[in-house]
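Priority: low. Protein: Helix-turn-helix domain-containing protein. Input follows.
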Amino acid sequence: MNENMPKNMNVEASVNLKESLSGQDELQVSHNLKRIRKEKGWSLDATAKATGVSKAMLGQIERGESSPTVAKLWQIATGLNVSFSSLILSCSSDELVSLFRDANELRDESLNKGFSVSVVFPFEPSLGFEVYELGLAENYEHFSEPHSTGVIEHILCISGRMAVFFDDSWYELSPGQAVRFNAEQLHGYKNIGTEQAVFHNIIHYPDQWQRS
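Result:
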Protein backbone atom coordinates (compact mmCIF):
# COMPACT_ATOMS: atom_id res chain seq x y z
CA MET A 1 0.00 0.00 0.00
CA ASN A 2 2.87 2.35 0.72
CA GLU A 3 5.70 3.23 -1.60
CA ASN A 4 8.54 5.48 -0.56
CA MET A 5 9.14 8.57 -2.62
CA PRO A 6 12.36 8.30 -4.67
CA LYS A 7 15.24 10.02 -2.91
CA ASN A 8 16.88 13.10 -4.40
CA MET A 9 13.77 13.79 -6.43
CA ASN A 10 13.51 17.33 -7.77
CA VAL A 11 10.04 18.17 -6.48
CA GLU A 12 9.46 21.22 -8.65
CA ALA A 13 10.52 19.23 -11.70
CA SER A 14 7.38 17.12 -11.22
CA VAL A 15 5.46 20.14 -12.51
CA ASN A 16 6.25 21.16 -16.07
CA LEU A 17 7.47 24.74 -15.72
CA LYS A 18 5.92 25.57 -19.11
CA GLU A 19 2.49 24.55 -17.83
CA SER A 20 1.40 27.83 -16.32
CA LEU A 21 -1.28 30.47 -16.23
CA SER A 22 -2.83 31.96 -19.32
CA GLY A 23 -4.96 34.92 -20.30
CA GLN A 24 -7.48 36.11 -17.76
CA ASP A 25 -6.10 33.85 -15.02
CA GLU A 26 -2.69 35.49 -15.31
CA LEU A 27 -4.22 38.96 -15.05
CA GLN A 28 -6.21 37.92 -11.98
CA VAL A 29 -3.11 36.58 -10.22
CA SER A 30 -1.22 39.78 -11.08
CA HIS A 31 -3.99 41.92 -9.61
CA ASN A 32 -4.44 39.78 -6.50
CA LEU A 33 -0.75 39.57 -5.68
CA LYS A 34 -0.31 43.33 -5.91
CA ARG A 35 -3.51 43.97 -3.91
CA ILE A 36 -2.59 41.55 -1.11
CA ARG A 37 0.95 42.89 -0.91
CA LYS A 38 -0.26 46.47 -0.62
CA GLU A 39 -2.93 45.52 1.95
CA LYS A 40 -0.13 44.13 4.09
CA GLY A 41 1.96 47.23 3.49
CA TRP A 42 4.83 45.12 2.16
CA SER A 43 7.44 46.18 -0.35
CA LEU A 44 8.58 43.79 -3.05
CA ASP A 45 11.75 43.25 -1.03
CA ALA A 46 9.76 42.27 2.07
CA THR A 47 7.51 40.00 0.00
CA ALA A 48 10.52 38.32 -1.58
CA LYS A 49 12.00 37.66 1.86
CA ALA A 50 8.73 36.21 3.18
CA THR A 51 7.98 34.00 0.18
CA GLY A 52 11.43 32.95 -0.99
CA VAL A 53 10.51 34.16 -4.49
CA SER A 54 12.86 36.73 -5.99
CA LYS A 55 11.91 40.40 -6.14
CA ALA A 56 12.42 40.30 -9.90
CA MET A 57 9.99 37.41 -10.39
CA LEU A 58 7.37 38.95 -8.08
CA GLY A 59 7.56 42.16 -10.07
CA GLN A 60 7.17 40.25 -13.32
CA ILE A 61 4.11 38.42 -11.97
CA GLU A 62 2.52 41.68 -10.82
CA ARG A 63 3.10 43.19 -14.26
CA GLY A 64 1.73 40.11 -16.01
CA GLU A 65 5.10 39.31 -17.56
CA SER A 66 5.60 35.93 -15.86
CA SER A 67 3.27 32.93 -15.55
CA PRO A 68 3.74 31.12 -12.21
CA THR A 69 3.14 27.40 -11.81
CA VAL A 70 0.87 25.85 -9.18
CA ALA A 71 3.94 25.10 -7.04
CA LYS A 72 5.16 28.70 -7.27
CA LEU A 73 1.69 30.07 -6.45
CA TRP A 74 1.52 27.87 -3.36
CA GLN A 75 4.95 29.10 -2.33
CA ILE A 76 3.80 32.71 -2.63
CA ALA A 77 0.50 32.05 -0.83
CA THR A 78 2.33 30.32 2.02
CA GLY A 79 4.76 33.21 2.42
CA LEU A 80 1.92 35.74 2.37
CA ASN A 81 -0.15 33.65 4.81
CA VAL A 82 -3.14 33.67 2.48
CA SER A 83 -5.21 30.91 0.89
CA PHE A 84 -4.36 29.55 -2.55
CA SER A 85 -7.75 30.56 -3.95
CA SER A 86 -7.23 34.19 -2.88
CA LEU A 87 -4.44 34.42 -5.49
CA ILE A 88 -6.28 32.90 -8.44
CA LEU A 89 -9.86 34.15 -8.02
CA SER A 90 -11.55 37.52 -7.99
CA CYS A 91 -12.55 38.76 -4.54
CA SER A 92 -15.25 36.47 -3.19
CA SER A 93 -18.65 37.74 -2.16
CA ASP A 94 -20.06 37.81 1.36
CA GLU A 95 -22.64 35.16 0.46
CA LEU A 96 -21.83 32.36 2.91
CA VAL A 97 -25.00 30.25 2.81
CA SER A 98 -27.25 28.77 0.12
CA LEU A 99 -24.54 29.16 -2.50
CA PHE A 100 -24.78 26.81 -5.49
CA ARG A 101 -21.62 26.04 -7.43
CA ASP A 102 -21.13 23.73 -10.45
CA ALA A 103 -17.66 22.18 -10.68
CA ASN A 104 -18.29 21.39 -14.36
CA GLU A 105 -18.43 25.12 -15.09
CA LEU A 106 -15.49 25.98 -12.83
CA ARG A 107 -13.02 23.38 -14.06
CA ASP A 108 -9.73 24.87 -15.27
CA GLU A 109 -6.59 23.22 -16.65
CA SER A 110 -4.69 26.43 -17.44
CA LEU A 111 -2.59 26.14 -14.25
CA ASN A 112 -1.15 22.74 -15.20
CA LYS A 113 -2.00 20.59 -18.21
CA GLY A 114 -3.23 17.22 -16.97
CA PHE A 115 -4.19 18.64 -13.58
CA SER A 116 -7.69 20.17 -13.61
CA VAL A 117 -8.70 22.51 -10.81
CA SER A 118 -12.22 23.56 -9.78
CA VAL A 119 -12.43 26.00 -6.87
CA VAL A 120 -15.85 24.84 -5.68
CA PHE A 121 -15.93 27.09 -2.60
CA PRO A 122 -13.20 29.75 -2.24
CA PHE A 123 -11.69 30.55 1.14
CA GLU A 124 -13.87 32.57 3.51
CA PRO A 125 -12.16 33.86 6.69
CA SER A 126 -15.30 33.33 8.78
CA LEU A 127 -15.44 29.65 7.79
CA GLY A 128 -11.73 28.83 7.66
CA PHE A 129 -11.65 26.46 4.68
CA GLU A 130 -11.83 26.16 0.90
CA VAL A 131 -13.08 23.26 -1.25
CA TYR A 132 -11.57 22.02 -4.51
CA GLU A 133 -12.46 19.36 -7.05
CA LEU A 134 -9.21 18.18 -8.64
CA GLY A 135 -8.59 15.84 -11.56
CA LEU A 136 -5.40 13.95 -12.39
CA ALA A 137 -4.82 12.66 -15.91
CA GLU A 138 -3.51 9.11 -16.35
CA ASN A 139 0.07 8.83 -14.98
CA TYR A 140 -0.01 12.45 -13.76
CA GLU A 141 1.84 13.24 -10.53
CA HIS A 142 1.94 16.52 -8.60
CA PHE A 143 3.95 17.50 -5.54
CA SER A 144 3.37 20.49 -3.30
CA GLU A 145 5.83 22.16 -0.96
CA PRO A 146 4.89 22.46 2.75
CA HIS A 147 2.07 24.92 3.46
CA SER A 148 1.77 27.31 6.39
CA THR A 149 1.72 26.05 9.98
CA GLY A 150 -1.64 24.54 10.92
CA VAL A 151 -2.95 23.88 7.40
CA ILE A 152 -4.81 20.54 7.13
CA GLU A 153 -5.89 18.79 3.91
CA HIS A 154 -8.81 16.36 3.65
CA ILE A 155 -8.74 14.20 0.49
CA LEU A 156 -11.78 12.22 -0.71
CA CYS A 157 -11.38 10.08 -3.84
CA ILE A 158 -14.45 10.41 -6.09
CA SER A 159 -13.50 8.32 -9.12
CA GLY A 160 -10.48 6.48 -10.50
CA ARG A 161 -7.55 5.32 -8.38
CA MET A 162 -5.02 7.62 -6.80
CA ALA A 163 -2.31 7.83 -4.17
CA VAL A 164 -1.53 10.61 -1.72
CA PHE A 165 2.00 11.28 -0.46
CA PHE A 166 2.65 12.49 3.10
CA ASP A 167 4.74 11.38 6.09
CA ASP A 168 7.31 10.10 3.55
CA SER A 169 4.94 7.43 2.17
CA TRP A 170 2.33 6.93 -0.54
CA TYR A 171 -1.23 5.96 0.51
CA GLU A 172 -3.58 4.51 -2.11
CA LEU A 173 -7.20 5.61 -2.33
CA SER A 174 -10.14 4.11 -4.23
CA PRO A 175 -13.52 5.83 -4.77
CA GLY A 176 -15.17 6.58 -1.44
CA GLN A 177 -11.95 6.40 0.56
CA ALA A 178 -10.57 9.48 2.31
CA VAL A 179 -7.51 10.62 4.22
CA ARG A 180 -6.59 13.66 6.30
CA PHE A 181 -3.06 14.91 6.88
CA ASN A 182 -0.97 17.82 8.11
CA ALA A 183 0.03 19.85 5.04
CA GLU A 184 3.02 21.51 6.75
CA GLN A 185 5.17 18.93 4.94
CA LEU A 186 6.04 17.87 1.42
CA HIS A 187 2.96 16.16 0.00
CA GLY A 188 1.63 15.07 -3.36
CA TYR A 189 -0.99 13.27 -5.42
CA LYS A 190 -0.72 10.87 -8.35
CA ASN A 191 -3.00 8.87 -10.61
CA ILE A 192 -2.27 5.15 -10.32
CA GLY A 193 -5.16 3.95 -12.48
CA THR A 194 -5.97 3.81 -16.19
CA GLU A 195 -8.51 6.65 -16.22
CA GLN A 196 -8.71 10.14 -14.80
CA ALA A 197 -8.69 10.27 -11.01
CA VAL A 198 -11.04 12.85 -9.50
CA PHE A 199 -10.96 13.88 -5.84
CA HIS A 200 -12.16 16.56 -3.46
CA ASN A 201 -9.66 18.48 -1.38
CA ILE A 202 -10.94 20.44 1.62
CA ILE A 203 -8.16 22.68 2.89
CA HIS A 204 -8.61 23.96 6.43
CA TYR A 205 -6.61 26.93 7.65
CA PRO A 206 -5.74 27.69 11.31
CA ASP A 207 -7.94 29.84 13.54
CA GLN A 208 -5.78 32.95 13.31
CA TRP A 209 -6.58 33.17 9.58
CA GLN A 210 -10.25 33.46 10.52
CA ARG A 211 -9.55 36.34 12.88
CA SER A 212 -7.33 38.28 10.50
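Residues 23-40 form the longest helix (18 residues). Confidence is low (pLDDT under 50) at residues 1-23, 93-98.
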